Amino acid sequence: MLDAIISTRELLGRVDELLRTQRVIGPVRRDVPDATPPVRWFYEPVSSARQLDLGFAYCVYSPKQYLLPPRETLLEFHRTPDGFSARPVSDAQPTALIGVHPCDLHALVTLDRAFSHNGDDEHYQARRRRLLIVGVDCGKPCTPGVYCADMRANVADEGFDVMLQPLGAGADVERFGVRFGSPRGRAWLEAGGGCERPTAADERAADAWQERKEASFGRTLTTAHEDLPAMMARSYDSLIWEATARRCYSCGSCNLVCPTCYCFDVHDELDLSLQEGRRCREWDGCQLQDFALVAGGHNFRSKAAARLRHRLMRKSKWIGERTGGKGCVGCARCDRACTARISTVEIYNQLAEEV
Fold it and tell me: What are phi and psi of 9, to 5 degrees?
């Protein structure tokens, strides 16, 4: 059921209103003539609603970076006559994230749960509290090879303040069906008075759009989503890990683009005076050779096969067990980013044949 209808013109007007008081992030098209594909989209700050491309296919990176930056300062410290003092650092600011596809909404829900598990991560939560999320539904697979439908992540019922459903086809959609996910989202969109009540014809159009969407998504996994954790447990000692890892460069590109990877490293940086410094957090990746290196020089996962297995065990089993969210949303960013052309789907299907 739709809560409202809004025209594209009114929607962009509401976004321009937001720009007067806060940062707005959304999908921006970039032409890259020498690349394949020659058109790419990135979540970037915009200065005008007209810069947003809500008909985008997929963004190279997920919007995760605006909640968990690749690198951030957690606190600053300096020596005092009595010892030392420390001051927390926060760059949280009011932000609107416009145009998030269902797969990335599921990923944000997973991050929300991970960073509130056994206590809140204050830096993450400070940004999350100031974030307005506007999702936009996708009417077909964004690119060949995605398996979001297999992971049940091509439809979202949570993780957003406002969800937009295009009522039309092509790039020039004139109207959106609206579902509200929070009072905050409703207050923002209805404040301008541009929303309309959905008619019976609007509901029929939305249902027909949804039916066309569901028909366009095929299935690529041979194992049902709910059976993956048990299958992975049985495959722990499979020889497929070693065979596949021979192609892996351990570059960490899959970690870099994954919307649900949230591992990080924390280290201190001191000034040359040794009188002050800062504590920093930056992304880390389980595919990097030194990720599991500990004091004394021992590496718990020195082999690429062990690291590859660890990543897919987290994606298909352990993150879900810990957070109740999805460790993998089937966006296939990892497959597209892998220079060795290692396919997560192929690994899952090979393991399914074996067990």
Answer: -60, -45
